């Protein structure tokens, strides 16, 4: 992002035309980023609660007073229940390595706070695809235009990854066919050559059906599999148990479509599978992703430039690691871990020992994005919970704070940002001074450290020192010089055009694991198999709650970020649910009606869109709006569960049964 500054004020933001992936284009979320920076709702000074918990009434305070209050609250928690009664809560507000969790981690470690298990986003899928490839596999997106068959699975890149979408469009201009697997006709599915619409959480069955179809047609690449995989014969034997017809009935996709897509994928190479995140928010998702990821191997897709299997690029993200700088050695003793998707439970569990007495939240809006929202809100409203929130705006979470501390935006602080999809690091240099009294997260945590009497020299390192330290440990030729001159640098993974044509996977033996040893050792079936979703596959529950609800991201919000901005909100003014005409008719629901959607965890009211964009049996409730946008103040998140995946301890937002009726 290039920023024009005149007299200390940013006047324009634009994409950098020299960046090979983003190519001068800013998406609809950040192309008016200045409206965010200079918004009249920006938090520009500290606030202290002046009303009841969660009422959102505050009075202005000085930094001195606010920090005193923070120190007092944290000390009180430590004295009453020990350091572990402090729970840090942070996620993806910024993914920059400096502002995400460096100084904050040091402070939390030194205080002996509980460790937050941060698995809310991609972990289920990473666990799964790593069981097959050793790490999350990746085909450099800059090679995607070479692909001829592209299978986009549980991913909506037109909305959620527009820069990668550009590369897929380039592939299509070169003649590639695009197939999308999604229970919802997303924007991406709408323009695909073919759209398969399985029941949520049944993707593993669909993939098994596709592999069986490949083998039935004799299209497997036996030579490549024998040379570069483990468990080829065992996989063939396993596929005997999964006739295409059976898989079709498990996932609700027609047999003919499964066979057609599978055979095209095997024949028309280079074939690229790109997994997204939507299909990995179910109990059985890790095994599903591990299974889906075997399909490209079976057809020999890794032989060809542009072919193979891609998910989140963890290899490039690992080139610069913040872990050694987070200083877990500062912990006075071992600490417990709490999963961020179980915030509701830990805040409301009266038997939890020690209890969560203080919550320190930055880069996240758990009041909207954590599952089982009723429990989360109940917890945040506890009178005996001391909550500190670092924020740019009064989000629903900040509204529940005792102390709110104003945070800088990307234009005002230094950061080094890894990518959620391509292979470049970006240096984000401050273009303008912090607005008002806002401070970078690092600076706020330095001040908290000093108020808490922490005097290790690591608490006075500046952001520039942190940047240098990050780059000192970097691999993949990421150098400060290049970052300073061009603003970005590509990770060199030392791979040619076909990274795994000759094997060389990141597993212990370098072979792709169709059969996975560590799964066996963990007591899990080591071969691809169907691990069903929890609620979607629960037939008894389906009697009471016949609809499987999914919560995709919206086009113009980033989770709940940007939902308060005039332009983005204007284009997506109100939440809604999408329901298939047959399901709507059965419930007397018509377009524009208000529906009450409910299950045992909660209920919310929303306008209805009747459309076959939702497959029969599925209710689509896009996420991200704030409380004020919902009638009754709560949306789909009140129905989602805190259940974790069968491996990887990740959330299951899309594994959720509900019923709907006219409100
Ligand atoms: N515009 C926009 N961009 C974003 C974000 C945003 O909120 N808005 N969020 C960012 C973040 S944090 C992330 S993690 C990424 C996420 O990027 P995506 O993975 O694209 O995000 P989702 O919308 O969660 O899921 C993608 C699709 O999966 C579908 N889906 C749901 N359940 C299933 C299932 O069981 N099987 C299959 N096959 N598909 C299913 C959904 O209908 C959805 O269309 O996007 C990032 N980019
Ligand atoms: N139902 C349902 N729930 C979901 C998902 C889903 O698909 N369905 N997706 C999950 C996923 S993939 C993810 S990644 C999580 C995302 O969960 P969060 O990371 O909590 O998502 P956001 O809503 O984007 O909230 C980020 C907050 O950080 C703030 N912020 C931005 N930059 C800074 C900064 O520099 N400093 C500080 N202090 N604050 C900053 C923003 O203003 C914003 O309020 O949500 C999860 N929740
Ligand atoms: Mo995410």
The structure class reads alpha/beta
CATH topology of the largest domain: Rossmann fold
Strand content: 15-25%
Number of strands: 26
User: What's the CATH class of the largest domain, please?
Assistant: Alpha Beta
Mean pLDDT: 97
Radius of gyration: 25 Å
Strand arrangement in the largest pleated sheet: 4-3-16-15-14-5
User: How many domain modules?
Assistant: 3
Point out poorly predicted stretches: none
Helix content: 25-40%
Bound molecule kinds, no repeats: ligand MGD, molybdenum atom
Query: What profile does the largest beta sheet have?
Result: 6 strands, mixed
The CATH level-2 architecture of the largest domain is identified as 3-Layer(aba) Sandwich
What does this structure look like?
This protein folds into 3 domains: 2-120 and 330-408 and 435-460, Rossmann fold, CATH 3.40.50; 124-311, Dimethylsulfoxide Reductase, domain 2 (3-Layer(aba) Sandwich), CATH 3.40.228.10; 539-662, Barwin-like endoglucanases, CATH 2.40.40.20. The model has no long low-confidence stretch (mean pLDDT 97). The protein is globular and about 70 Å long. It has 663 residues and is α/β, with parallel strands linked by helices. A 6-stranded mixed β-sheet has the order 4-3-16-15-14-5, covered by helices on one side. Strands 21-25-22-24-23-26 form a 6-stranded mixed beta barrel. A 5-stranded parallel β-sheet has the order 9-8-7-11-12, sandwiched between helices. Strand 8 (177-181), helix 7 (187-190) and strand 9 (194-196) form a beta-alpha-beta unit. The structure holds ligand MGD (2 copies) and molybdenum atom.
């Amino acid at each position: 992002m290039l920023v024009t500054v005149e007299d200390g004020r940013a006047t324009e933001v634009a994409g950098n035309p020299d960046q090979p992936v983003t190519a001068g284009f800013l998406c609809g979320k950040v192309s008016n980023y200045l409206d965010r920076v200079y918004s009249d709702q920006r938090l520009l000074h500290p606030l202290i609660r002046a009303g009841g918990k969660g009422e959102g009434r505050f009075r202005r305070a000085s930094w001195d007073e606010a920090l005193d209050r923070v120190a007092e609250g944290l000390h009180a928690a430590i004295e009453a229940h020990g350091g572990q009664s402090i729970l840090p809560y942070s996620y993806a507000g910024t993914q920059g390595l400096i502002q995400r969790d460096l100084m904050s981690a040091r402070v939390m470690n030194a205080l002996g706070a509980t460790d937050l298990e941060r698995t809310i986003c991609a972990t289920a899928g990473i666990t799964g695809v790593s069981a097959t490839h050793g790490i999350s596999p990746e085909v450099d997106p800059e090679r995607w235009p070479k692909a001829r068959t592209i299978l986009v699975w549980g991913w909506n890149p037109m909305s959620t990854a527009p820069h990668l979408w550009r590369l897929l469009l380039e592939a299509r201009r070169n003649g590639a066919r695009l197939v999308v697997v999604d229970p919802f006709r997303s924007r991406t599915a709408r323009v695909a050559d073919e759209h398969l619409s399985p029941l949520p959480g049944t993707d593993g069955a669909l993939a098994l059906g596709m592999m069986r179809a490949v083998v039935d047609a004799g299209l497997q690449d036996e030579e490549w599999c024998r040379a570069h995989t483990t468990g080829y014969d065992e996989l063939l034997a396993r596929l005997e148990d999964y006739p295409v017809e059976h898989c079709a009935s498990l996932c609700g996709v027609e047999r003919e479509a499964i066979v057609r897509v599978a055979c095209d994928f095997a024949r028309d190479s280079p074939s690229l599978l790109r997994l997204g995140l939507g299909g990995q928010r179910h109990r059985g998702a890790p095994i599903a992703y591990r299974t889906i990821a075997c399909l490209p191997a079976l057809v020999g897709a890794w032989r060809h430039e542009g072919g193979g299997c891609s998910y989140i690029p963890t290899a490039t993200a690992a080139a610069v690691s913040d872990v050694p700088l987070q200083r877990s050695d500062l912990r006075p003793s071992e600490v417990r871990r709490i999963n961020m998707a179980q915030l509701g439970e830990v805040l409301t569990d009266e038997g939890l020992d020690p209890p969560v007495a203080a919550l320190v939240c930055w880069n996240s809006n758990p009041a909207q994005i954590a599952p089982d929202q009723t429990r989360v809100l109940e917890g945040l409203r506890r009178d005996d919970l001391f909550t500190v929130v670092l924020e740019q705006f009064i989000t629903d979470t900040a509204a529940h704070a005792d102390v709110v501390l104003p945070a800088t935006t990307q234009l005002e602080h230094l950061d080094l940002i890894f990518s959620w999809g391509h292979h470049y690091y970006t240096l984000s240099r401050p273009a303008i001074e912090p607005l008002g009294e806002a401070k970078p997260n690092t600076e706020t945590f330095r001040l908290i450290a000093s108020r808490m009497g922490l005097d290790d020299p690591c608490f006075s390192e500046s952001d520039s020192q942190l940047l240098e330290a990050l780059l000192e440990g970097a691999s993949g030729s990421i150098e400060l010089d290049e970052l300073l001159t061009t603003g970005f640098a590509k990770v060199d993974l030392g791979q040619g055009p076909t990274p795994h044509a000759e094997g060389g996977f990141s597993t212990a033996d370098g072979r792709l694991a169709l059969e996975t040893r560590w799964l066996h050792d963990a007591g899990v079936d080591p071969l691809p198999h169907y691990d069903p979703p929890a609620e979607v596959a629960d037939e008894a529950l389906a009697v009471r709650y016949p609809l499987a609800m999914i919560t995709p991201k919206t086009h113009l919000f980033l989770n709940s970020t940007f939902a308060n901005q005039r332009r983005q909100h204007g284009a997506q003014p109100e939440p809604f649910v999408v329901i298939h005409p047959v399901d709507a008719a059965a419930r007397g629901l018509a377009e524009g009606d208000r529906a009450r959607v409910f299950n045992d965890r909660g209920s919310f009211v929303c306008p209805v869109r009747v459309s076959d964009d939702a497959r029969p049996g599925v209710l689509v409730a896009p996420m991200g709006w704030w409380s004020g946008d919902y009638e009754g103040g709560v949306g789909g998140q009140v129905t989602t569960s805190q259940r974790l995946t069968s491996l990887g301890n990740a959330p299951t937002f899309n594994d959720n049964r509900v019923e709907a009726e006219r409100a």
